[in-house]
Amino acid sequence: MRRRGLSPLLLVLVHCWASVSAQAGTTLAVTTEGLNSMEPAPTTPGPALSARPPGTPRAPGPSSSPRPTPVTDVAALCVCDLSPVECDINCCCDPDCSSMDFSIFSDCSIPVVTGDSQFCSQKAAMYSLNFTANPPQRVFKVVDQINPSIFCIHITNYKPALSFLNPEVPDENNFDKLMKTFDGFSLNAESDVSLANKSDAPNTTKYEYGVLLQTSDSFLRFPSPLTSSLCTDSNPAAFLVNQAVKCTRRIRLEQCEEMEALSMAHYSSPEILRVPITVQSIVIQSLNKTFTRLEDTDVLEQALVKAGAVKICTNVVLEVKYSLTYTDAGEITKAELSLLLGTVSSAELPLQQRFEIQFIQQNTKPVPLSGNPGYVVGLPLAAGFQPHKGSGIVQTTNRYGQFTILRSTAEQDCLALAGIRTPVLFGYNVQSGCKLRLTRAIPCPLVVEKVKSLLKGQGFPDYVAPFGNSQAQDVLDWVPVHFVTQASHMKDSCQLPVSLVIEVKWTKYGSLLNPQAKIVNVTATLISSSFPETNSGSERTVLISTAVTFVDVSAPAQAGFRAQPTISAKLPFNFFFPFV
């Protein structure tokens, strides 16, 4: 009875294995054939399995239902087409590439383009290069690709799920139909805005980092050198990508009035998604390199002027600087343009142009730096503290108040100097101090706390930035401040802090031609002295001092020399014949 009960289960498993084997064999035949063949290779039919339990439904065959119609045309897809209106190298599906471009390709970066890989059968666009032809040609075919997985989609009974449908907006024509379809409606406070006002609103786009900036007709062009020093005008500008480049342009002076790349209107006319570019300033450069800023910002056209045998072209664009303001949501709200126009003669050809684009966040002020990247002598040290483990460095907005020491005054009274501080400037060794009068009426613990707060200040930092432009979120790069206490113990005495010595060790980092100052260690030593208890009615004057010392710990640079070249040449055995 047990063997008879297990037979249907074994037969069903054998039937499933045979179906998978047949399907996998068809797939291998298709993928190993050439591009010109779209027919599957013949397979050897296996023995028919007639022993099937009664009442068991038959597995759906290939002809049980029509295959789903592909929604996406794979022949029109091209994931390597990154540059608009420009041929991408080795992108065989790029519609901007011509047959001449295909002839210099070395390979197809994307050889196969498919749609949804979950279907059991789908269309696939195959791209390859025929190097036997002269010149090499691109080979393109659309074939049927079989998915060997048993968990593939064979029949789709819900066709709207194959694509995303745009919701139908209610209007006066379809309102009754939508009421019957969705059985009622609801209103909220945001529904008071009319559809007409929404259609008239500006179509602003929220950009992400690296997304190309769109204009009314194409993209914002940012000329830059690519493979050589010559300017390439088809390079697009990207969001939040600050650039500053110089490139050379070869021109003929007689045709300067016809070249758009030399015209001011060419850079000020585009609109970045309905945000017009406003000309902020125009500076004129003469032949003798003098600069004049114009009060008017009207568009100036370049003009060819002849002075005898000399030809010059005026109002030629020499420098272009874009300044784009954006919000936290990634919307560009303002676009400003600064131009440098000059007069060019034949002696200054080929022409060199400079282009710059920068992005400024709205309602923010740039944070001043103490160097970029290394510290600059005379600028304050960047310092802060970490409120809890895992958080970033917290800094005060006043960069001159991040790391301070006691400031000396003419009165030399420590009690009158509370709150008067001076910043620690890089490279400046400083020593300051004051006088403190002690009497028996003042208890020792109170004096100790007062002097400590006087020496350390209100917020003594825990970390110091290694470079002048270090970011607050890079906590592991910051240098911790090592706080050391030195005291001399005496019986029946008051341990009073009298000095705070700060030692900052720095080194020269980077190239020998342009070394950058980098802080590698900061040590703050609090020195205490023992003072005996004063007698009643007497007083003692104590000197309180603070010192800051910068120590250069740079290792001497070792000059490296390359090994002298050796000549590895083999002479024939009879080269010196008959002398040797």
Number of helices: 6
Distance between the termini: 105 Å
Largest sheet: 8 strands, mixed
Average of pLDDT: 77
The whole-angstrom Rg is 39 Å
What's the count of strands?
22
Beta fraction: 25-35%
Order of helices and strands: HHEEEHHEEEHEEEEEEEEEEEHEEEEE
Low-pLDDT segments = 1-65, 186-204
Summing up helix and strand content along with how strands pair, one would put the structural category as: mainly beta
Helix content: 10-25%
State the shape: extended
Give keywords.
580 residues, mainly beta, 8-stranded mixed beta sheet, 7-stranded mixed beta sheet, 22 strands, 11% helix, 30% strand, extended
Question: Short description, anyone?
Answer:
The chain has 580 residues and is mainly beta. The protein has 6 helices and 22 strands.
Task: Describe the protein.
The chain is mainly β. The protein is 11% helix and 30% strand. The protein has six helices and 22 strands. It has helices at residues 2-32, 99-102, 175-182, 195-200, 265-268, 444-456; strands at residues 112-114, 121-130, 137-146, 224-225, 231-232, 243-249, 271-272, 275-285, 291-293, 303-307, 310-326, 332-345, 351-361, 383-384, 404-406, 421-423, 430-439, 463-464, 479-486, 493-509, 516-532, 539-552. The strands form five sheets. Strands 6, 7, 8, 9, 10, 11, 12 and 13 form an eight-stranded mixed beta sheet that branches. The protein has a seven-stranded mixed beta sheet with strand order 14-18-19-21-20-22-17, covered by helices on one side. Strands 1-2-3 form a three-stranded antiparallel beta sheet, covered by helices on one side. Strand 4 and strand 5 form a beta hairpin. The longest helix is centred in the first third of the chain and has 31 residues, at 2-32. The radius of gyration is 39 Å and the shape is extended. Mean pLDDT is 77; it is low at 1-65 and 186-204.
